[in-house]
């Protein structure tokens, strides 16, 4: 199965951040955020894209009734705000820090366009990223609309295994060391945290998985 929750095993920060390019290195700064700080709000001007140097960032929006909808939780090396590259003038979502020591590399749209013009590999990476991110969001919406909670959880665990696991293509137990809290996982698959706790404990009782805060083990009998 293709990864739909995480982009791919590429640290975009190492490839794209302007401080890697001599022309921009001296005048480039990083922005620091604490937990719950907003990087931008809905309706803000879309004049930058952002790369995560450290920490985690939540991307989402609010329904008409004020309910928060989480579109993605991003980690080190990932890009967000990329619609600005395609001509978006105002944000249609918010971006919020989830860690106390989040460090962000902001890149002006004009600078990004310059880098894309000057570096074909850079440009191809950006467009590939945007295309895969749209496909990922489409797949996630399909899961939320047409799959029950337990199926969404199992498919999410499968994706975690492909991104963070080892021995996931062998006959032994699948061990996943991941960066998400239970709240993160519940948000990403569209269920409440209590519901997630119930489902995870049911899977544990059925000897399908075992888990702690940072690791999930999928037993080989369930593969």
Automatic annotation (TrEMBL):
Cyclic nucleotide-binding domain: from which residue to which, for each copy? 12-91
Annotated HTH crp-type domain ranges read 147-222
Entry GO terms, CC:
cytosol
Q: Which PROSITE patterns match?
A: CNMP_BINDING_3, HTH_CRP_2
Write one Gene Ontology MF term: DNA-binding transcription factor activity
In terms of domain of life, where is this protein from?
Bacteria
Q: Which InterPro entries match?
A: cNMP-bd_dom (IPR000595), Env_Response_Regulators (IPR050397), HTH_CRP (IPR012318)
Q: Which PANTHER family match?
A: CRP FAMILY TRANSCRIPTIONAL REGULATORY PROTEIN, REGULATORY PROTEIN YEIL
Question: What is the protein's name according to its record?
Answer: Crp/Fnr family transcriptional regulator
């Amino acid at each position: 199965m293709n990864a739909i929750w995480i982009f791919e095993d590429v640290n975009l920060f190492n490839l794209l951040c302007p401080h890697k390019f001599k022309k921009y290195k001296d005048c480039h700064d990083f922005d620091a955020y604490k937990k719950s700080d907003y990087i931008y709000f809905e309706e803000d001007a879309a004049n930058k894209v952002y790369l995560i140097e450290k920490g985690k960032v939540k991307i989402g929006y609010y329904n008409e009734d004020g309910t928060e909808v989480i579109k993605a939780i991003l980690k080190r090396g990932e890009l967000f705000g990329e619609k600005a590259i395609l001509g978006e003038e105002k944000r249609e979502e918010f971006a919020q820090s989830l860690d106390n020591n989040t460090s962000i590399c902001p890149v002006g749209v004009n600078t990004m366009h310059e880098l894309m013009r000057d570096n074909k590999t850079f440009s191809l990476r950006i467009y590939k990223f945007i295309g895969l991110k749209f496909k990922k969001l489409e797949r996630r919406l399909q899961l939320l609309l047409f799959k029950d909670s337990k199926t969404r959880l199992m498919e999410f665990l499968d994706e975690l295994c492909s991104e963070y696991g080892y021995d996931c293509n062998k006959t032994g137990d699948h061990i996943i060391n991941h960066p998400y809290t239970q709240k993160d996982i519940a948000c990403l698959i569209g269920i409440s945290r209590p519901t997630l706790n119930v489902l995870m404990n049911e899977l544990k009782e059925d000897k399908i998985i075992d888990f702690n805060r940072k690791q999930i083990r999928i037993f080989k009998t369930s593969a």
